[in-house]
Amino acid sequence: MVAAAASVACVIGLAACGGSDASQTASSSSASGPIEIEVWGWDKNAPKGWVAKYNESQNEVKVNYVLQASNTATQQNFRNAFEAKTKLPDLVQGFAPLTTNVSNGWAEDITDAIQPLLPKFTEGAKENAQLNGRYYSLPGAADGTYAIVNTDVLAKYGVEAPKTWDDVIALGEKMKADGGKVYNLAGEDPSGFMQLAQKAGANWFTIDGDSWVVNMQDEATGKAVDIIQELIDKDLVSNQTYKDKPALYNFFDSGKFAFTTLAYWSATGYQTNMPNTRGKWQAIDYPSISSADEGKVPGYLGSASFIPKGTDRAHQDAVIKMTNWQNTPEGYEAGRDPDNGTLGVPAGRTEAAGLDAEKYAEEAIPDNFYADKDQAKKVIVNAAGNGMGGFDLGPNYDAWFPELQDQWGKAVAKQITLKEAMKNVQDFVVQDLQAKGINVKVA
Amino acid sequence: MSGKAEEDVRENRHVPWRILQALKGSTFTWPFVAGFLFFVVAPIVLSLRVVLYNKQKSGLGLGEAKEVFVGADNLVRAVQDTTFWIGFGRVALYAVIMVPLTQFLSMVMALLIDSVRAKTAGKFRILLLLPYMTPGVVSTIIWIYLYSPTTSPFKWTGINFFDSNLVWFSMGQMAVWAGLGFNMLIMFGSLQSIPHEIIEAARIDGASELRIAFSIKVPFMVSSVTFTTLFGIIGTLQLFNEPYFFRSISPQTITKDFTPAMQIYNEAFQVGNINYATALSLLLAAVLCVASILLYVAQGKVNRA
């Protein structure tokens, strides 16, 4: 039904729908007026916000924003339109990782068109948009990960804020005597472990010629595995689920919990729901594992905005022009939420974009949460600008992530070791890729 | 029959009026039949084609997959899939406990409601049906708060409903809560059809309320109990919502393919192998069909005995 509705919409507003249709290419190449592009996404403020402002600000590109109900709805509608071979939009807000988009044949190779945009993005953000040296999505970076630590707990045990994961473990051992837990490992969420592996230098999916190389048991992953295993074996961690937020907040706020990793937007929820520890959290850089990875900020991108396959070059260029504007001070400001006035901290941008990350961090930091707001601002700006890139999730992420969740849950519950879990996941990946006819090698 | 209808019957002398009347009556079922054809029969027919193909990629697997004819490969793989049968065993065991329990509790509720005044009965009927009318998402949120070790009103008991050893109990409780009202309503309906004079005669003969319940009311409920049991079994073997909810709470126990329905969901919408998911769906449907027939035959024998 949705696909049918979408296709009807496309038939009615022919010029508004992107694609490689010959008549469209002709119309877009004629200089008779602005080139029209269709963008799908679920930003409810977009149509009257940045889209309207962009359309007013220039007359080369006219954006038609088709508001989707949600991330899931966008995914379903896009899949339907793709399967039904109806006209596709010119840009889709990301709902799946880069390689999934390419693997499904959804994303266009935009290496040529994207060039004007690249100076505005960091190396990490650019790596996140590339597969095998070609660009298949708009550049982007995960909101930088950092950590917070409870200063009361630090004072109680007379220690400094942790700089390394060894420091975290040492703090956990001190807390253990009093029944405290240093860190939380939710049984359903292995993403923190994935970040730790990335920080250690792991790269689970790489390409070698015509074959994928799966590498989930290398030395780097092993370092992350050892840290987590030690935390589990020594009973230094809690296992609060993110599905039961009241319980999680309650424990984090109990004074018996020391340290967690986060992105800046989590702090607002913590500030509201953790009244006892307000103003006691010190922001710190993501702890390092060894001197080799000092200063590196992990963060992989679970969803990449892409230009659908078959979009012609003129429409690609129009999308890039629009994205370029969104990465100017004026364009970025246009994205401000009219209801609550918020605007995120820009991640993965270089100075060429001209965005004042400090100003936006200042706005995004809740009052009375961090022990030292200025210092928190520095940590957040650093995390936003220095995110690592290129942690490829492979061509079958949707298949192996639930398997990793299963195995991770077992490891956290001490049913198996994390090392065994990673072997099981790697075996699963290899088997799944082979079943799909995809070349795969084990590193 | 209205005058117009009689006229129609007379005009169509070749068609006996009974058949004509039956045909006219059947028009009331058209909306249902249309929906049934479109949403049940058509997908099954389409699935028969899907199950014969597989999507195959090559090289790095980038770009659209090619469709390859594989014959019965998917079905053979499904029949040999131990994960599927282990999951099926799980839900079957769960059904053995849950279905009779739900039926028994529903029956008790129906009998209790039947024994009070109509006005009181009406209130309780609505109350018991509320869980059935509550959308799944809403009831999940309710149960998170009821079970949460932090917010639960039952936390004084010291029971952690999120504990992986208690998962089955916690899921069962949710299922009974959701299913009780519907079953009760069907059974209560059959109680309403018991001729009043039978019950009155029993009372005059000096039968107690308990005796009336066991000797008159329960036998009258058998056909509706057959119906609700069948629905209960089919629903339970397709168990999805409750374990899906508990997956995030207790992922070490509730794996991604914990029940057949979860495995099918995972294959179709996570792994993206629609072809194999279809094979598993057809297998599950076939097993359910056989189970339903067996139950029907068995209950028929019980009824005759």
UniProtKB/TrEMBL annotation, chain B:
Chief location of this protein within or outside the cell: membrane
Superkingdom of the source species: Bacteria
GO cellular component term of the entry, any: plasma membrane
Listed Pfam families: BPD_transp_1
Keyword match Ribonucleoprotein: no
Membrane topology: Multi-pass membrane protein
Locations listed in the record: Cell membrane
Signal peptide interval: none
Keywords attached to this entry: Cell membrane, Membrane, Transmembrane, Transmembrane helix, Transport
The keyword Membrane is assigned to this record: yes
Annotated transmembrane regions: 28-52, 91-112, 124-146, 166-188, 218-240, 276-298
Domain ABC transmembrane type-1, residue spans: 88-295
GO biological process, one term: transmembrane transport
Cross-referenced Gene3D superfamilies: MetI-like
Family: Belongs to the binding-protein-dependent transport system permease family.
Protein name: Sugar ABC transporter permease
Species this chain originates from: Bifidobacterium vespertilionis
Taxonomic path: Bacteria, Bacillati, Actinomycetota, Actinomycetes, Bifidobacteriales
